[in-house]
Amino acid sequence: MASGRGSSRRVPDNESSIAYVQMDGLAVMKMIKHSHEESTGNMEVAQGALLGLVVENCLEITNCFPFPKHNDESMDEEEYQLAMMRRLRRVNVDHFHVGWYQSADVGNFLSLPLLESQYHYQTSIEESVVVIYDTQKTARGFLTVKAYRLTPQAIQMYKDNEFTPEALRNLKIGYESLFIEVPIVIKNSHLTNIMLSELAEMVPEEDGTKFLDLGTASVLEGQLRCLMDRVDELNQEAIKFNRYQQQVIRQQQDKHRFLQKRSQENAARQAKDEPLLPEEDLNKLFRPIPVPHRLNPMIVSGQINTYSQHISQFCSQSLAKLYITQALQTAKEVNCPKIELNLISEIDKSPFTNEQRSVTAVWLHERRHTNNIMETMKMKFRDCSDVEPPEKATVLG
């Protein structure tokens, strides 16, 4: 990850005054190209450095370059970044390190390595941001580029290095208050805007035949599977925490029983004018149970919330398409001739249910293997269904 990729210059840890992030089209296109190459090639997360400068309350990102891959052991990451920034400075390109970017899948970017990396960046470069680019959404036609910064509560949590329930409760921090989103504005030159306008006129318009496409089961299935995995993981964390609480209660009961027993023994010894037993350190007799960290459950809860929001939005759009197609189908059925409707209603006049006919069909098919005669199958049918079997040897009745 990018945990150690920030520069070493220190700044005061006061609250940032960045109001929005302005990205050049060149930096956006280079980031998109790198992310899609990684996602289609080896399905890895794409990461890179963002270069630019701060102008008043705006963080301008003018260029970027990818980080070297982890499997290349011969290359030093710090030396690689310094060499890249020196070369960019020679060609009069902004070379100040202002953050990093990472690709994501369907908006679910929250993870422990990302939190640690952004903490190291913000404590060394105050203005730094992490830009998240969603490859899956962009592939479906929705450009998704968002910038985030850690909140002061999250930075204080990492400084204290305490992730116990009491520490998180005192900081009043949850998964919804780990990051704060910074608005992004994409800026292009006037010549680029003219070229884009000409390209838009050259691209033919679509006929609009895919607006009601309902082939979305695979996307929904993937998101539901990811949501189920995260729910199972959160359930395991809840089981661990419940086990910890039970151990603490059991230990407190053992301490209480030990103190009661010791007081009774001292009372008996005092009545016999014998010396009292010395007081012992309870922490040595009953070692404190380590408190499980609550940072991982918090991150998993944030991932569940992200998946739930995407599934809700996805299902609402699909339901709208279903209602539209239902109205079209209803209008088509109303315009059908009544003769066809009568023929459809008169197709099946059998007194037996589909389940009964299916079971009978299986019995008839396996008769050559079971050697059952017709009378035996009729008896089994009568016992299972409480209905008289058909007189003819047919499953339709």
From TrEMBL:
CDD domains: MPN_eIF3h (cd08065). Pfam families: eIF3h_C, JAB. It is found in: Cytoplasm. Residues 21-154 form the MPN domain. It comes from the Eukaryota. Keywords: Cytoplasm, Initiation factor, Protein biosynthesis. Component of the eukaryotic translation initiation factor 3 (eIF-3) complex, which is involved in protein synthesis of a specialized repertoire of mRNAs and, together with other initiation factors, stimulates binding of mRNA and methionyl-tRNAi to the 40S ribosome. The eIF-3 complex specifically targets and initiates translation of a subset of mRNAs involved in cell proliferation. Belongs to the eIF-3 subunit H family. Component of the eukaryotic translation initiation factor 3 (eIF-3) complex. This is Eukaryotic translation initiation factor 3 subunit H. It comes from Periplaneta americana.
